[in-house]
Every structure is written in C-alpha cells, then in structure tokens.
Amino acid sequence: MFENLTERFDRAFKVLKGHGQITEINVAETLKEVRRALLEADVSFNTAKAFTNTVKERALGQNVLNSISPGQLLVKITQEELTSLMGSEKADINLTGNPGIVLMSGLQGSGKTTFSGKLANYLKTKKNKRPLLVACDVYRPAAIDQLHVVADGIGIEVYSEKDLKNPVKIAQNGVKFAIENGFNLVIIDTAGRLAVDVEMMNEISNIKKAIKPTETLFVVDSMTGQDAVNTAKAFNEKVDFDGVVLTKLDGDTRGGAALSIKSVVNKPIKFIGTGEKMDALDIFHPDRMADRILGMGDVVSLVERAQEQYDEEKAKKLHRKIKKNQFDFNDFKDQIGQIKKMGGVKDIAGMIPGMKKALNGNEVDESSFIPILAMIDSMSPKERAYPEIINMQRKKRIAVGSGNDIQEVNKLMKQFNQTKKMMKLMSNKQNMMNMMKQFKKMGGKMPM
Predict the structure, then answer these.
(1) How far apart are CA 49 and CA 396, in angstroms?
(2) CA atoms within 13 A on the CB side of 166
(3) Which domains does the chain show, CATH number per domain?
(4) Which residues does 15 contact at the CB level (< 8 Å), separation at least 6?
C-alpha cells in the first residue's frame, strides 16, 4: 500500500538531513520532491500545489526546537497536513433507524458487491447487527448469483427477485421484507456501469428517494487514481453520498484517490478494502494512514488486529510454556496461524515502524509460510513437542518429507530458536518495562 509514495517521501526528506536549520532554500528543494511524489501518485496538480504551499508556510513560520532536527520537524508538519488532507478524524457510519439502511453506489468493477458482503460481515460480527443484503443489480449477468455466493460464505441472507427488473421496487420490497422479518440493517447492492451515464445516475437517485437510506456510500477502486476522484465528484453532485469506500488498496495503488478525494468532494473516506477475504475491511483512520505513507508504521491498527484474534486461554497457556522454556514447534505453528488470520503479511509489515526499510525491497507474502509449514508438518509429534531432539539424521528426513533441502531445515531451526529467545525475553516483565521505557524515550515511534 502506497509503497512508491513512501519511498519518494523518504527520498525527499533526505535533502534536509545534515542541515542545522530550516531555510527557504532547503524547504523549497524538499517540497519540490514531495510535490513530484504526489503527482506521480496521481494526486491532482491543484491539490499537490496547495498541500506543499501549506507545509512550506508552516515550516518557515516555526522556530526549530533544539531537540528536533529540521528533517524531523518537516516530517511532523507533513504528517499533520496529510492527516488533514484525508479528513483529520475517522468518520462513523450512520446506522440509526430500524432498520438502518445503507445504499451502495459506484461504477461496475469497483467492488460494490464484495464490499457489501464485507460490510454485512463486519456489522454482524463487530456491531451485533442482523443484516439483510438486497440485490438490485438487474443488468449485470450473474450479479444476483454473485451476491448470493458472497452472502452464503458468511451466513447472511439475501433478498432478491429474479423476475422483477425494477431496481426501485426491489429495494422497497427488500426493506419491507427486512421490517417484517426482524432484520435491523439493510444493505442495498445497486448496479454500476463502465462509465458514468444519465440512466445510472437517475436510477440510483430514484432508489435513494424511495428508501431514504440512513447512509449512502460511494465505492471506488483506488487503483483508478485520479479517475476515481472525478467519478466521485460526478456521483456526489447527483446522489450526495455520505462517505467513500476505497477498495483494492492491497494492489499496486498509487494513492492519489486516498489523498485527493476528501478535498475534492468534501466527504470522508469511511472504509478501505485491503484484500479478497471477507474480513479484509478496515475503518479509515486519516492519521494512521498518514503515518504509513511516511513509513512510520501503524502500531495501533496492528494491536487492534491482534486483539481481534486474541484467545485468552491460549495466551495464558503459551505464557506458562514460555516461562518454563517449553515453547515448541506446535506453538510456533500456532503463531503463524495467528499472523495469517490478522491479514496479509505484507500489510502487517507496513504497520511495523521501520519494517519496510528493514526488508529493503524484499517481498514478504503468504507464500513465505508454505515451506515452513511443510517442514513442521513433516516432523513427528515428538519432534514438534521436543525440538531439541532434532539431530542431523532427523533433519535429513524432514527435508525429504517436506520437499526442501537441509539448508532450509537449518534455517527454520535458527528462526525457531531466535523466536524462542525473543518470547522468553518478552515474558519477563522487567525486560518489557525496559523496552517500553526505551520506546517512550523515542516519542512512542520507532526511528525512521
């Protein structure tokens, strides 16, 4: 997510390294690189220019504190302005009413149907809602079937009428069905087109008038960059939506939509889609996204994801084993499972301060776990429980059984022992307190 933009910002701020003070010349040089980075990310020229002008005004208007370098000060100002550009604070979805009604809008291929399922799943599992999905796309072949497939996978009911071709009437009937059957939330999946047209705009406008939704969301593919912003503007003028959903942020996105859309339509980004899985949905936090764009990570979101997967009994059992130095390959495998549940490994790496830089361009993804899990699965139950018994002969058997060579098994053993040492270190309260003291000294953020 925003990998190229992060690299360009990093390069831009290197201009100030070694300078004792901020001057008009070195700020201008740095912000010229920042503007280039924004334009390459497909941010509009006017937005990029206004942004860098604001940062310049603030930078030159501040006295540099003795404890902070010019580079750090400019990063701080840039982070604050990026946060402001993307909306300053997270914006909640309005689910008032019984039922609450959420209307989806957007072009074909933007990910409306998949997101409708993700949102239903999120509100069911996190907000205790009983959602009903309503299929109002009567044009795209198999659109209704797609929504049913998505919903079946997460145990959510769909209201659809294959013989009725009037989307407004289907939406009204869906809301009526929800009221009669005790659903407290309705999510309306509407049709899209390959481009904005009058017919589509009139249809979505008529649906909105008929059902009076509590929330109208505009779903947009973030990989379309500036085109996404222009489409959002056209939709907003006709539909007056309440918030934006950026999908496919896990892809090769340049970031222009996330950085420009709020300033152009003055509507908040509320959710982002970060993968294909039904739980790959995040609430949009402008400050956290600004941190990630600047390579500072996003520790808060990482902790939140970890807490969602947290099993208290399992954690207590693991803690007891670590204290007794009994951490084994069964525990190691469990930890890999927990990481996979938290989302894409690449996405998690982006949340850890300094991790992207430490990886130095090396790709880390789900496939990295395949050979590791194959080797663990090739071990006998006794070997998994007592790793210390794994000698050269056993290593050779594990290598053959998993389709790897002996060097890979040795590498796994080394990784396991390092993890075991780290777990032991972190189980000690005094060690953890010392680590937290160091963390606080650095202002709560790892050095860039």
Answers:
(1) 61
(2) 6
(3) 3-85 (1.20.120.140), 100-294 (3.40.50.300), 302-441 (1.10.260.30)
(4) 26, 29, 30, 33
Q: What is the pTM of this model?
A: 0.66
- Contacts of 120-123 with C-beta under 8 Å, sequence gap 24+, read 120/151, 120/154, 120/156, 120/185, 120/187, 121/154, 121/156, 121/278, 121/279, 121/281, 122/279, 122/281, 123/95, 123/185
Residue 20 class from Cβ within 10 Å (0-12 exposed, 13-18 middle, 19+ buried)? exposed
User: In this structure, which amino acid lies at residue 420?
Assistant: K
Local structure of residue 68 (DSSP, 8 states): S
DSSP per-residue letters across 189-230 = EE---SS--HHHHHHHHHHHHHH--SEEEEEEEGGGTHHHHH
User: 15, 90, 4, 8: which is closest to 59 by C-alpha?
Assistant: 15
Q: Is the dihedral of CA 40, 41, 44, 45 positive or negative?
A: negative
Cα separation, 282 vs 192, whole angstroms: 23
Residue type for position 354: G
Q: Coil, helix or strand for 9? A: helix
Q: Phi, psi (5° rounding) for residue 8?
A: -65, -40
pLDDT digit string, tens, across residues 8-25? 777 777 766 655 566 777
**Average pLDDT of the chain, as a whole number:** 78
> Can you name the residues that pair with 190 across neighbouring β-strands?
136
pLDDT tens digits for 310-333? Answer: 556 666 676 677 777 778 888 888
User: Residue 215's pLDDT band (boundaries 50, 70, 90)?
Assistant: very high
Could you report the per-residue pLDDT of 225-256, keeping only the tens digit for each? 677 788 888 888 888 899 999 887 765 556 66
Q: Which two tokens stand for residue 258?
A: 């996330």
Using one digit for the tens of pLDDT, what is the confidence trace for 110-129? 888 999 999 999 999 888 89
373 exposure class (CB count in 10 Å sphere: 0-12, 13-18, 19+): middle
DSSP 70-102: HHHHHHHHHHHHHHHHTTSS-------SSSEEE
Distances (CA, A) of 175 to 38, 135, 183: 43, 11, 9
Peptide bond into 381 cis (omega under 30): no
Q: Cβ atoms within 10 A of the Cβ of 429, count?
A: 8
Edge-to-edge order in the sheet of strand 243-247: 157-159, 131-136, 185-190, 100-105, 215-221, 243-247, 269-273, 281-283
Rounded to 10 degrees, the C-alpha dihedral 326/329/333/334 comes to -20
Q: Which two tokens stand for residue 447?
A: 């050095």
Dihedral of CA 304/306/312/318: which sign?
A: negative
